[in-house]
UniProtKB/TrEMBL annotation, chain A:
Localization per record: Cell membrane
Major subcellular site: membrane
Subunit structure: Forms a stable energy-coupling factor (ECF) transporter complex composed of 2 membrane-embedded substrate-binding proteins (S component), 2 ATP-binding proteins (A component) and 2 transmembrane proteins (T component).
A GO cellular component entry from the record: plasma membrane
Name of the protein in its database record: Energy-coupling factor transporter transmembrane protein EcfT
Any one GO molecular function term: transmembrane transporter activity
Superkingdom per UniProt: Bacteria
Membrane-related topology note: Multi-pass membrane protein
Automatic annotation (TrEMBL), chain B:
Annotated GO MF terms: ATP binding; ATP hydrolysis activity; ATPase-coupled transmembrane transporter activity; cobalt ion transmembrane transporter activity
Record's protein name: Energy-coupling factor transporter ATP-binding protein EcfA2
Keyword ATP-binding set for record: yes
Pfam families assigned: ABC_tran (PF00005)
Similarity remark: Belongs to the ABC transporter superfamily. Energy-coupling factor EcfA family.
Gene Ontology, cellular component aspect: ATP-binding cassette (ABC) transporter complex
Keywords: ATP-binding, Cell membrane, Membrane, Nucleotide-binding, Translocase, Transport
Quaternary assembly: Forms a stable energy-coupling factor (ECF) transporter complex composed of 2 membrane-embedded substrate-binding proteins (S component), 2 ATP-binding proteins (A component) and 2 transmembrane proteins (T component).
Listed NCBIfam families: ECF_ATPase_2, PRK13634.1
Organism of origin: Terrilactibacillus tamarindi
Cellular compartments annotated: Cell membrane
The enzyme's E.C. designation: 7.-.-.-
Taxonomic lineage of the native organism: Bacteria, Bacillati, Bacillota, Bacilli, Bacillales
Length: 267, 289
């Protein structure tokens, strides 16, 4: 249960940690889109280099980046193999029965794999260097223009921060109830699949009950402290846009322009 | 059943940056049919210790022996079910584990998991519900319609119905009113004697530990600091203070009373009755002097 990396902020004080969540979110969004423009060794190389520099700037142990990549490792391998076998073009390298491997197909497969790797690395980097709460704050601010067309942005952001806040609580609770039911002879971790599926009910029912109860308590606590939604509400955590945020955005825009130009010129 | 901890160490999150020693080199023998209270500050390893007794946690090194079953860090425990059938565990806030449509089904959940026939499980459920002081009418109701105190009793009945020989109580009275506390504790004491349980209770209440148990284990930072009878533990006032523990209220009162009467002696006295006797005795000595 402890190797779940989503929402697992790794505390630190690096350049990336200090950035405003808004600039990080915008940059990641742009980069994930722009990856689809890359189509050559140079362009992929540039993007990969940029990612590596970001990883270095985050001062995170490489192990954590690796842990983010591990769950998608099979997807990577699968995509690579499927593409290598199905894409044609260039010189034939291996031609043995059903197995056709061409140089063009090989290059294309490497590109696709690299593309997914970069996307996963960048998003992992975002969640590792941004505390979940400021992540939710950043999203709320970025989507706030939608309030004009009556989208409940504040409520969505609140829902997001509340659910993020309660993930550890829920995990603790799950562990506790699992143990309590195990002590009564119901075991989730052993036995045939059918039996294990049945053992999930005694776990889920108490979890639902306590979650609803907790939600009720939380609503009561918020109301008793005068919570009345978004209107006229000031913020406890103010987001601060600093010069380094501008620098990062300029760098990203520069990278995007370069990539687009190179794509047009066919480099 | 004797329970023997043999150089048992438990690590949380081993081999990660979050590694933490929860229990360190525990050597402890809890003898059969004793009523042992485990006390200690929050985070001293009380719950971790008792969770080893029914195999919910495995030792990182060392071993634990429960009757004829032994668990160590290496092998996969095959007779876990047999162990859990003999070692019942009442968790903190046990009412959180209720899930069935009716009280009867919920109480039968444990016994049926352990391979008891349905008829026998129902018979046990009726017996257990009477033991915890509830009416058999309640068996057909939904556990979620009951009051908090009733839910707690139903959850306890669910453990009783397994008919364990060793019973672990993890703060069984947390969150109950004074009357409920007393009822539940006397119920456990009664069952302990009637069914010849080996009872192990984790508690923050020095009064309960002093009054109900015959052995006490004092935990401190993952080690056993003391293991003795309540009388011998509570006489070590200074040592207890260093471990962050109080005296039972009866002794706190007597201590202050003696100090005001310029008497030095302090005896381990736990019940209201004994405290009254002790005051009379002390007053008599004062008058004589």
């Amino acid at each position: 249960m402890n190797n779940l990396i989503i929402g697992q902020y790794f505390p630190g004080d690096s350049y990336l940690h200090r950035l405003d969540p808004r600039s990080k979110l915008i940059s990641v969004f742009i980069l994930v889109c722009i990856i689809f423009i890359a189509n050559s060794w140079t362009t992929y190389g540039m993007l990969f280099l940029f990612t590596c520099i970001s990883v270095a700037a985050s001062k995170l142990p490489l192990r954590f980046i690796y842990r983010g990549l591990k769950p998608v490792f099979f997807i990577l391998l699968f995509t690579f193999i499927v593409n290598v076998l199905s894409m044609d073009g260039g010189k034939p390298l291996i031609d043995y029965g059903v197995i056709h491997i061409t140089s063009g197909g090989l290059v294309f497969s490497i590109f696709i794999t690299l593309r997914i790797t970069i996307i996963v690395m960048i998003t992992t980097l975002l969640t590792l260097t941004t505390p979940p709460i400021s992540f939710a704050d950043g999203i709320e601010v970025l989507f706030s223009p939608l309030k004009k067309i009556k989208v409940p942005v504040h409520e969505f952001a609140l829902m997001m921060s509340i659910s993020l806040r309660f993930i550890p609580t829920l995990m603790e609770e799950t562990d506790k109830i699992m143990k309590a039911q195990a002590a009564r002879g119901s075991d989730l971790s052993t036995g045939p699949l059918r039996q294990r599926m049945k053992a999930i009910v005694p776990l889920l029912v108490p979890l639902f009950v306590s979650s609803f109860k907790r939600a009720d308590d939380l609503a009561m606590a918020m109301e008793s402290r005068g919570y009345r939604g978004d209107v006229g509400r000031t913020r406890f955590r103010e987001l601060k846009w600093s010069s380094s945020d501008s620098i990062v955005l300029v760098l990203v825009i520069f990278l995007v322009t370069a990539l687009i130009l190179m794509r047009i010129r066919g480099i | 059943m004797d329970i023997i901890f043999n150089q048992l160490t438990h690590l949380y999150h081993p081999k990660t940056p979050f590694e933490r020693i929860a229990l360190k080199d525990i050597n402890l023998q809890i003898s059969s049919q004793s009523f042992t209270s485990i006390v200690g500050e929050t985070g001293s390893g009380k719950s971790t210790l008792v969770q080893h007794i029914n195999g919910l946690l495995k030792p990182s090194s060392g071993s634990i022996q429960i009757g004829s079953i032994s668990i160590d860090s290496r092998k996969k425990v095959s007779n876990l079910k047999e162990l859990r059938k003999q070692v019942g565990m009442v968790f903190q806030y046990p009412e959180h584990q209720l899930f069935e449509e009716t009280v009867l089904k919920d109480i039968c959940f444990g016994p049926i998991n352990f391979g008891i026939s349905e008829a026998e499980a129902k018979r046990r459920a009726r017996w257990a519900i009477k033991q915890v002081g509830l009416d058999t009418d309640i068996l057909s109701r939904s556990p979620f319609d009951l009051s908090g105190g009733q839910m707690r009793r139903v959850a306890i009945a669910g453990v009783l119905a397994i008919e364990p020989q060793v019973v672990i109580l993890d703060e069984p009275t947390a969150g109950l009113d004074p009357e409920g506390r007393k009822d539940i504790m006397s119920l456990f004491k009664q069952l302990h004697e009637d069914r010849q349980w080996t009872t192990i209770m984790v508690t923050h209440s020095m009064e309960d530990a002093a009054y109900y148990s015959d052995q006490m284990v004092v935990m401190d930072k993952g080690t056993v600091a003391m293991h003795d009878s309540p009388e011998n533990v509570f006489i070590q006032i200074e040592a207890l203070k260093k471990l962050g523990l109080d005296l039972p209220q009866s002794m706190q009162f007597l201590r202050l009373f003696y100090a005001k009467q310029d008497l030095k002696v302090i005896k381990p006295v736990f019940s209201i009755e004994d405290t009254a006797d002790e005051i009379i005795r002390a007053l008599k000595t004062v008058r004589k002097g």
